[in-house]
Amino acid sequence: MGKRVLLIEDEPNIIQAISFILSRDGWTVDTHADGRTAMDEVARRRPDLIILDVMLPNRSGFDILADLRADPGTESLPVLMLTARGQARDRDLAERMGASRFMTKPFSNAEVLEAVRDLVTA
Amino acid sequence: MIGFNMLVAVCLAYVALLFGVAFAAERRAERGDVGWLRSPLVYTLSLSIYCTAWTFYGAVGYAVNSGLEFVTIYLGPTLVMVGWWWLLRKLVRIGRSQRITSIADLISSRYGKSNLLGVFVTLLAVIGTTPYIALQLQSVTLSFAVFSADGGGVPEFEQLDTTAVVVAAGLTLFTILFGTRTLDANERHHGVVTAIALEAVVKLFALLAVGVFVVWGIAGGPADIAARIAQSDIARWEPAAGRWAGLIFLSGAAFLCLPRMFQVMVVENSDERHVAVASWAFPLYLFLMSLFVIPIAVVGLELLPQGNADLYVLTVPLAEDRDGLAMLSFLGGFSSATSMVIVAAIALSTMVSNHIVMPIWLSLRREAASMSGDVRDVVITARRISIAAVLLLGYLYFHFSGGSTALAAIGLISFAGVAQVLPALLGGLFWRGASRNGAAVGLAVGFVVWAYTLFLPSFGESFLMSGAAVAEGPFGIGWLRPRALFGMDGLDPVVHSVFWSMLLNTAAFVMVSLFSFPGPLERLQGAQFVNVFEHSSSARGWAQGGAEAEDLLIMSQRILGSDAAQALFQREAARQGGGGYLPDTTPDFIETLERELAGSVGAATAHAMVGQITGGASVSVEDLMAVADETAQIMEHTTQLEAQREELSRTARQLREANEKLTLLSIQKDAFLSQISHELRTPMTSIRAFSEIMMAEAPMAEADQQRFATIIHDEAIRLTRLLDDLLDLSVLENGQVSLNWQEADLHLVIERAVAAAGLQGSALTIRRDPALEKVRLLTDTDRLAQVFINLIANAEKYCDAARPELRIAVAQRGEGVRVDFVDNGSGIPKESQSMIFEKFSRLTDQSRAGGAGLGLAICREIVDRLGGSIAYLPGQGGAAFRVTLPLAQAKAAE
């Protein structure tokens, strides 16, 4: 397959875990940890899927999602959102703002892998 | 026979005693134990600097030349003290409520904090006082010369000159040491006042001793002396009514206006009630000082008809071979001279530094004055240099006038000069209509007339005015003759000068005041001065808003010192019902602050500095209204309304603050849950993900396996630590914590915290002064160390300076000890300062900072339990935390 995933997340250990799971499944994984420059990174990497954390330094994942959906180039790009806050309010908000999928940490590896495959082939 | 060397030795011993007394008094005052240092008796004795060497030696000479007329010099102050003590009380009250630092400051402050007037009065005072200081130097050197002559050699002028230089230098040293030790907010000098009180006793005792010796030792008792007086020339002097009235008026006016008298009477006054005691005790002192003047003069004339009458107090005992008595008398004269010079130099240096140096310095650094540079250093240096300059001027006058003029003449010239302040002073205290222009013009006219009719002619023929000009009038214009202005011939020069200068001064002051409209600030100050007893705090000078409390604090720290400034701000914040160090900048507070600053740098300078920060809008329309339609009832009514309005707005502000705080807390409560969730789930995510990887995969590189296991392990520890913190905080908050109280050394706790903070390999350097850390505490050392470690770790994490540095400063204050942690980073923004001690209030979002944002919350709980407090200290440059802890004794006493 060789498709590209951009992982926007700031916890080093979680970055390592997701990168490991996805690259072993044949995905190319780029990572980025800062909220403010995330949009530039999307434009540069042109990924097939974005995994987006909610609590990022300098800029919230929700703001980035809004930007993605407002841009014609990325409005239909699949976005998998992750959050550790685990409140129902966040899930509603994410869905209304057009996240393709919303998952709460901690997740099971199989679930993540399945969601990524689903979203890219769909 | 007393040799010159012996005399010098006694002199030095006496000076050493004065140094010791002053030093002991300062030490005592530093310990806060003021006690008898500030009794009415010391106050009364300090007033005796009115009696200078001129009085001590000169009164006898005066009596020889003019009979009883010398009494006028004592009668003026006596009348003021007995009849006008209510005026003194008003002066003292104003001095205290407005934090007045000198007579120039008083005039400047009354007339709209005008610096021009401050400069004017300062110059007048310097010019008027210089001859007087010269006079003191002259009397000391002459008295030295008497002993030298007695010891055999006749002194040359050069020799006298050297003595004068040495005396001037010694006085400079003493005055700088005790007059400028600190830039104390209220400008009190305990050491100096105590020393001059001692000198007052010495000179009175000396003069009485000589008097007793003359009456009972030389003459045969009171009856014999009365007979001798009746036979002498002195009894034949007819008092001239005009001159008597003039001189009594002059000495009374000078008593009120002399810078040094203002210094001891108003600035150094610690209690208004002392004035009541002084009002009878000081005239009594003056009476005793004058009691034996005539007997000494009569006996002196009999024994030494060719001698210098100004020195009879000294030469009569010498002629009778009473060396001990002569020595005592010498010390009395020495005391009179030195105490006057010291206080005059302090008063003048305060005026010069506050009204001339500071305004110049301030205008040179207009934009940065309040924010950078140490103002205290500038002021103190300016004062020291001014003291030296004042004494140098005095010496130069002595040197160039050649020590020839009779003592009394110089004294009267000085008196007439400073008396020019009187119309502006009295007008300012009792007449609302007195205006700045009036005061300035009056002073200028008075000064010019005084200089023309008295001061310049006193230099003799060669200097500035030719003999012909004095005798015939300038350019031969008869009615401009300095000694007979407008053809008023036949008057005594002093009375003539006083008559014209005071008349023209007062007339100009009144006329210009009537025809000029005072500015708003002048009217406000006028109301505060004239009505000081009715409402000392109702008129205001500052409009609401504009100033940042932190900027004001930074400026105040530079002038008052950080301790005093922080205490002032904290007190005000507490009074307003808040906490911390930053009160609201209400007009009242700014007014209070300005007065505190005025105590150090004078009214005009303080006003200018505060104006720079508040943006200069000094008087609001509201305040102008208050001044414009002010009658007694309206004032009372507005004051009540004002108080109610302030009460209301204070309550409203407190409610608003409480509401804001509650809203924030509720948001925080939500955020707290969400934060806990986040902090717990994040490590759990890694643990779950990596354990699933390790569970599912059969073949995996050894290195990967090792790495993943380490991550799982580290994250498990992070979870545990978070749970520990939460538990710790919960226990502390519920007060269930058991503390291990023990007596401990603060130094060891800090030492332990620094070692445990894990700074190896960190860029952060720590600066400490271990000597100050030797403090015994009753505390829980583990818990205290935990607080310190947290503060050090925070500095390590968040200090963003290129060369991060943390200063740990320990200071004992009263029953507590303060430990300040100040770094050199960019500090914490003002809007966040109030929240940093709340849970999860980590200012950055990154988990890389390590903790969960519970550290400071835990610190606050711990310090609370230990009986202390922790606060953020604004205005220190970097982030600064102050931990205050009770000392071991104080804690044990509970």
UniProtKB/TrEMBL annotation, chain A:
<feature type="domain" description="Response regulatory">
    <location>
        <begin position="4"/>
        <end position="120"/>
    </location>
</feature>
<dbReference type="InterPro" id="IPR050595">
    <property type="entry name" value="Bact_response_regulator"/>
</dbReference>
<keyword id="KW-0597">Phosphoprotein</keyword>
<keyword id="KW-0805">Transcription regulation</keyword>
<keyword id="KW-0902">Two-component regulatory system</keyword>
<dbReference type="GO" id="GO:0003677">
    <property type="term" value="F:DNA binding"/>
</dbReference>
<feature type="modified residue" description="4-aspartylphosphate">
    <location>
        <position position="53"/>
    </location>
</feature>
<protein>
    <submittedName>
        <fullName>Response regulator</fullName>
    </submittedName>
</protein>
<dbReference type="InterPro" id="IPR011006">
    <property type="entry name" value="CheY-like_superfamily"/>
</dbReference>
<dbReference type="InterPro" id="IPR001789">
    <property type="entry name" value="Sig_transdc_resp-reg_receiver"/>
</dbReference>
<dbReference type="Pfam" id="PF00072">
    <property type="entry name" value="Response_reg"/>
</dbReference>
<dbReference type="GO" id="GO:0000160">
    <property type="term" value="P:phosphorelay signal transduction system"/>
</dbReference>
<keyword id="KW-0238">DNA-binding</keyword>
<keyword id="KW-0804">Transcription</keyword>
UniProtKB/TrEMBL annotation, chain B:
<dbReference type="InterPro" id="IPR036890">
    <property type="entry name" value="HATPase_C_sf"/>
</dbReference>
<dbReference type="InterPro" id="IPR003661">
    <property type="entry name" value="HisK_dim/P_dom"/>
</dbReference>
<feature type="domain" description="Histidine kinase">
    <location>
        <begin position="675"/>
        <end position="889"/>
    </location>
</feature>
<keyword id="KW-0067">ATP-binding</keyword>
<dbReference type="InterPro" id="IPR001734">
    <property type="entry name" value="Na/solute_symporter"/>
</dbReference>
<dbReference type="GO" id="GO:0016020">
    <property type="term" value="C:membrane"/>
</dbReference>
<feature type="transmembrane region" description="Helical">
    <location>
        <begin position="70"/>
        <end position="88"/>
    </location>
</feature>
<comment type="similarity">
    <text>Belongs to the sodium:solute symporter (SSF) (TC 2.A.21) family.</text>
</comment>
<feature type="transmembrane region" description="Helical">
    <location>
        <begin position="192"/>
        <end position="219"/>
    </location>
</feature>
<dbReference type="Pfam" id="PF02518">
    <property type="entry name" value="HATPase_c"/>
</dbReference>
<feature type="transmembrane region" description="Helical">
    <location>
        <begin position="438"/>
        <end position="456"/>
    </location>
</feature>
<feature type="transmembrane region" description="Helical">
    <location>
        <begin position="498"/>
        <end position="517"/>
    </location>
</feature>
<keyword id="KW-0597">Phosphoprotein</keyword>
<dbReference type="InterPro" id="IPR004358">
    <property type="entry name" value="Sig_transdc_His_kin-like_C"/>
</dbReference>
<keyword id="KW-0175">Coiled coil</keyword>
<feature type="transmembrane region" description="Helical">
    <location>
        <begin position="244"/>
        <end position="262"/>
    </location>
</feature>
<feature type="transmembrane region" description="Helical">
    <location>
        <begin position="6"/>
        <end position="25"/>
    </location>
</feature>
<keyword id="KW-0547">Nucleotide-binding</keyword>
<feature type="transmembrane region" description="Helical">
    <location>
        <begin position="378"/>
        <end position="400"/>
    </location>
</feature>
<keyword id="KW-0472">Membrane</keyword>
<keyword id="KW-0808">Transferase</keyword>
<dbReference type="Pfam" id="PF00512">
    <property type="entry name" value="HisKA"/>
</dbReference>
